[in-house]
Design a protein that fits this description.
The chain has twelve helices and eight strands. It is α/β, with parallel strands linked by helices. α5 packs across α6. 42% of the residues are buried.
């Protein structure tokens, strides 16, 4: 531990002290991802982040989209919902608005997020709902055995396109940054410590926190294995010193994420701390109760007489 940066030493020391709380998030169900899948690291980071933020399991709602990420819906001991394909960024905001006391975290893959669910993502970002969305970007549809997705690199042969992917590659962060977001981050599934810190920042954000995690898929995506990323990753914190990077400047952010091949930035890419979340702009901004607390039976007999 003496060789680790001070903040990581502190993180690990705190986790050791909170081992009992960490175990409360553990599910008895066996993880079924492929050996070497990035989901193992991502789930470890989610557990670590929640423990380090002293958030208890009964105060967390995890919403899962369909895909390999969704196979984790019974692998973490919190409230969980496994929703419809591409619809998690419509489902999760509703849950968060119904009960703002819950920490709402949604996860989805690049396939469902940028194909079946791209319309829901757009409105979730622009409306700035208070929630965390973790996009597992492994550049393919892994659950359906290696189909090309919107983020698959051109010309790469996949099971659904053996002659090579004919479509251009969608840049997820460019799309999200074009929607005037309030918080955009990126991490890498091969770095649990970094993912943990980014998820901690995301759960503390008062709005829609979009976190992309570049993820290895050792079974179906042979073109970007874990080692492909290592010499391409740069940390935003280093860029602040070397290039005077300002993560409140959206145009610097868009320029930074434009490269998908040689320079892959991880960290807090962009933030707008002055943007209000959705409910803060409604007539519920000063409400003392949550919507779920207002659900009760009402006597509508007088109303019915008007239609009799």
């Amino acid at each position: 531990m003496s060789q680790l940066p001070n903040h990581l030493q502190t993180q690990l020391q705190n986790l050791v002290q909170k081992a009992d709380q960490y175990n409360t998030f553990t599910s008895p169900n066996k993880m079924t991802w492929c050996s070497g899948c990035g989901n193992f690291g991502i789930f470890s980071a989610i557990n670590r982040a929640l423990v380090l933020e002293s958030i208890l399991p009964h105060n967390v709602l995890m919403c899962f989209d369909v895909g390999c990420n969704g196979n984790g819906s019974d692998k973490i001991n919190t409230y969980t919902i496994h929703g419809l394909h591409g619809r998690v960024t419509a489902l999760a905001p509703a849950c968060g608005m119904a009960n703002g006391k819950m920490t709402v975290i949604a996860t989805g893959g690049d396939g469902s997020t940028f194909s079946e669910g791209i319309n829901h993502l757009i409105h979730a970002v622009r409306n700035n709902y208070k929630m965390v969305f973790i996009c597992h970007n492994n550049n393919n549809y892994g659950l359906t055995t290696g189909q090309a997705s919107s983020t698959t690199k051109p010309n790469n042969p996949m099971n659904s396109s053996p002659m090579g992917n004919l479509s251009s590659q969608l840049n997820p962060l460019q799309l999200v940054l074009s929607l005037n977001p309030s918080w955009v981050g990126r991490s890498f599934s091969g770095n649990i410590n970094h993912m943990t810190e980014m998820i901690r920042q995301a759960v503390n954000h008062k709005g829609f926190a979009y976190l992309e995690i570049m993820q290895a898929c050792p079974t179906y995506n042979k073109f970007t294995p874990q080692e492909w990323y290592w010499d391409k990753i740069v940390d935003v914190e280093d860029l602040k010193n070397s290039e005077n990077y300002d993560n409140t400047d959206i145009w610097q952010a868009r320029k930074l994420v434009d490269d998908l091949d040689k320079k892959l930035a991880i960290g807090l890419i962009y933030q707008n701390p002055n943007m209000l979340d959705y409910l803060s702009k409604t007539n519920r901004a000063n409400s003392q109760t949550e919507l779920v607390e207002e659900v009760k039976q009402y006597d509508i007999s007088k109303l019915l007489t008007e239609f009799m």
